[in-house]
Amino acid sequence: MKGRRLKREYLLAVDLGGTKTEVALAAGERDWPGIVARRVYASQEFEGLDAIIADFLARPDARKHAGALAAACISVAGPVEGERATTTNLEWAISAKALGERFAVPAVRLINDFAAAGVGIARLDPGDLETLQEGQPVTHGARAIIGAGTGLGVALMMWDGKDYAVHASEAGHVDFAPLDQIQDGLVAHLRRLHGRVSYERVLSGPGLAQIFHYLKDCGVDAPSRAMLEAAEKEPDTAVVVSEFGLRQHDPLAARALDLFATVYGAFAGNIALAVLARGGVFIAGGIAPKIVEKLKDGTFMRAFTDKGRFGDLLSTFPVHVVLNSSVGLYGALELAGRLARGGVKRKVKGERREA
Question: Cα separations (Å) of 90 from 4, 19, 52?
C-alpha cells in the first residue's frame, strides 16, 4: 500500500453486487494487494451480507486472521447514506455500525460500488484496460466510470489538487432517451412493463434480455433453433443473447447486442458530456468484459460521438473498457487501508442522500 504500512493488522474488503459478492482479506504489512484469503459468492443464495461475511471469516484461510481486523470497506450496489445502505437489486439493509459490532471491526466504511470502482482504477495494470478511443487525455481532467451488470452504475472523478476525489452517483436511473424509431418502440415496450423507464432498464443484464424479447415480438427476426435450445439450458437470457450475438450465430441475438451497444455508447457519451471527462471514460461492470469484441467493432463509439455539434469534442475523450472484474474490490481494499490510517473521508465524496 502507499505510505506507511499497517503492522500485523488485516483489512476486509467486500464488493457487494446484485449477482455476485467478492470478499477479500488482506495483510496490512504486505505489499499491495496483500490478499491472504479471497472468495466470490452468489449473492442471492444468502439472506444478507452478514451471512456472507460470517461464512467467509469462518473458512480456514481467513479464520486465522479474522481476530486482527483493523478496518473494513463494503462496496454496495445501491445508494449509501452515511453509515447505512440499501442494495438496489437485493433490497438488503446494511449498517456499518452493526457490521462493526458483530465482526469486531473497529472501523467500517460503506461506499457506493462505482465510487469504489473509481478508486480502484488507480490500482489497475495496463493490461486490465482495453482502449476503444485513445483521444487526447488531459492530465488531471475529469473522469467517469460507467458499468452495466445486474444494474447500471456511474461515478464521477474530479482532481482535488492532490488526488482524484470520487463522487458517487445514481445516474443509471435517469430517464432513458430513445434516439430512433426502434428505440421509440423499445421504450414503449418497457413502459408497459415498468411504467417509468430509466437507462438501467435497458443497460443491464435484464435489459439486454428485454431488448431481445422486444425485437422478437416486433417480428424483426425469429430466434434460431440452436439458440432456443441453449436458452432452455441457461436461465439467464442475457448470457445466451451475448454468446450467440457475439459469434453471429443468431441474427436476432446479433441485432439485440447491436442495439444494446448503441444505447450503451449514447449513454456513455451523455455522461462524458455532463462531466467533460477529458481525463477518460472507463467502461466497467460485469457485461463489458464479456462483450468487449462487440464494443470494439465501432458501434459503441459511433453512438458515443454522435452528439451533433459536440461530436468533435467527444472524439478527444479517452475511452477504455475495464477488463478486471475486481476493480470495485480493489477500490474497497484501498479505502479500507486509508480508513485504518484515518484518511478515507478526504478521497470519497457525495454518497447519494436519497433513495
Answer: 37, 9, 14
